[in-house]
What we know:
Number of domains of chain B: 2
Structural class of chain B: alpha/beta
Largest sheet of chain A: 2 strands, antiparallel
Number of domains of chain A: 1
Pfam families (chain B): Peripla_BP_6
Largest interface: A-B, 46 and 42 residues
Signal peptide (chain B): 1-30
CATH architecture of chain A: Orthogonal Bundle
Family (chain B): Belongs to the leucine-binding protein family.
CATH topology of chain A: ABC transporter involved in vitamin B12 uptake, BtuC
Oligomer: heterodimer
Helix content of chain A: over 70%
CATH class of the largest domain in chain B: Alpha Beta
Strand content of chain A: under 5%
Radius of gyration of chain A: 19 Å
CATH class of chain A: Mainly Alpha
Strand content of chain B: 15-25%
Order of helices and strands of chain B: HEHEEHEHEEHEHEHEHEHEHHHEEE
Radius of gyration of chain B: 24 Å
InterPro entries (chain B): BCAA_transport (IPR051010), Leu-bd (IPR028081), Peripla_BP_I (IPR028082), TAT_signal (IPR006311)
Helix content of chain B: 40-55%
Structural class of chain A: mainly alpha
CATH architecture of the largest domain in chain B: 3-Layer(aba) Sandwich
Largest sheet of chain B: 8 strands, mixed
Strand order of the largest sheet of chain A: 1-2
Number of strands of chain A: 2
Protein name (chain B): Amino acid/amide ABC transporter substrate-binding protein, HAAT family
Shape of chain B: globular
Number of strands of chain B: 14
CATH topology of the largest domain in chain B: Rossmann fold
Amino acid sequence: MDFSTFLIQLLNSFQYGLLLFLVASGLTLIFGIMGIINLAHGSFYMMGAYMAFSLTALSGNLLVAIIVGVALSVLIGFLLEWALFSRLYKRDHLDQVLLTYGLILIFEELRSLLVGDDVHGVPIPELLSASIQLSETLSYPVYRLFMSAVCILLAIVMYWLIRHTRLGMMIRAGSSNREMVQALGINIDLIYRIVFGLGVTLAAFAGMLAAPVSSVYPGMGNQVLIICFVVVVIGGVGSVWGALVAALLIGLADTFGKVIAPDYAGLAVYVLMAAVLLWRPEGIFRRI
Amino acid sequence: MEQGFNRRRFLLSTAGIAGGLALPAAPVFAQGAKKIRVGLMLPYTGTYASLGTAITNGFKLAVDEGGGKLGGREIEYFTVDDESDAAKAPENANKLIKRDNVDVLVGTVHSGVALAMARVARETNTLLIVPNAGADEITGPLCAPNIFRTSFSAWQPSYAMGQVMADRKHKNVVTLAWKYSFGEQSVAGFKEAFEKAGGKVVKEMYLPFPNVEFQPYLTEIAALKPDAVFVFFSGGGAVKFVRDYAAAGLRSSIPLYGPGFVTDGTLEGQGEAAEGMLTTLHYADNLDLPKSKSFKAAYFKAFKMQPDVFAVQGYDAAQLFAAGLAQVNGDVGKRADMIKAMETATIDSPRGAFTLSKAHNPVQDIYLRKVEGKENKFVSVAAKALADPARGCRM
């Protein structure tokens, strides 16, 4: 591998890692702050991608699709929290797994009924459809770079939200002691609803953003679910910062695993996870 | 209380009488010409649901064209959704064989499930017709007198592509596929023909199924600069790969080839990115054959949609079974004669007539097709009457 190829592979891994972070950040929030094991997280990602597909087909514009899609996702997040998840906080993990697994099946069936089982593509917006020549044969789509920029921006916004705002303070407090926060007169139910809505929206947004490059197909959510849990476990449950570092590490392991040891490419990520867990059983970063 | 009890007793006794009356009637009803019991074990939910439906439609169309009968006998269908779940396959197959007592088992799409079905069929000596799954083993090591296939083996389209790419003067080729048996068998078939014709596979790359993060491989391909790339993916993976390949700017400098699955049922999603791509398969969307045209018209009339290669394979499964039944006048008890007739039948398929190899796999023409405006259009015959080598089959 020459140096320029190496640099391009670095770019690949960075870009993949950032997208992973975007999907997994919602999971780490819901898992870390609310203590809910949400197996349906991948379904929210799929929901986002299908929204991007159908809303782009309706409106002809990905940006409009994303704005409407985000609004819908917030609404769906709030509704699900109110109707189902708010009943789970006091129950054990087994009940949570049961409910969220059921949700996977329901979301898949709804997808099948509403949109069908065909594979679809979402067109890349005109403005971002160019590509940059990297080597004499390879060029890089601008849209992929745009995705990375959006992911970085969102990481900064989330960091600011959780570290430097009043809401963030309440969220952090709520995750360490629910009862005490409630005793101090903060509406913890509302905080949880917001966190859950945020988690769902992040996953759906990741799906919408990725739809033009990933295409839209049945079962796409299950593919990201497992890797998202790996991100959360490596990064440390509930740590957004940890999720970012973990996602970037996984991007590196996956990309270079595929290049250096293609026969064992599937293993690279899990070897990384095992190594991190031996070194730090609670993940790289512990809390938010 | 007393009254209610009486009423309940009254209801119970009348129900008993009604039931008693109904009972003797049942055998009389069943004593007419016994129906042929056809077990359809196909995916009706999940990723392959549309394929399962197309196969079922094709099968039923062939039966309906024969007046709802095969070999002069009425048909009764028993359906099981196999969910493309290999773990449930033996149980599902046994449900149809033991509970429903089917005369023939038809299925399925997913190779893992079909391999399990082939094993059950061997154990129970049930007649099995595979209308899609391409695992080489089904008509290889697992071949049996009672196991037939009306689709293809993984080896066939890829082997034909090896010859095509050598003819097109490509010398150094990189292959890329998912690392599971169908992907590996496709690459092996391609490599066999391509290297025999003097080409060289520079690098075989695999990624874990169903991973779709292709960017590292595209970078690798750009660095290796081969003359061409041979690729196998299907469904969502095929859509994403073809789009990524075009977006990476590789399409103009390094042509992309593959077996037909890369561009079948995926063109809507691939859009412009697939335009002009060459693939090989035993079917093309615009075959200039009378049978293909009449089939398309009949299928459209019955189901209000265009048939695909899966519908053709389902249709041919019924035709093959009909050929066997016709020989024995619908008496499935004469198994040996029936199988003999099926083995020697010439199936007038919408893909072009085919016969069966010794291992019961179609000996068929493989077509070179070109993607033009959301259709896989016929270009030429890539391999005439290509027979799978049936390695490991002792029959």
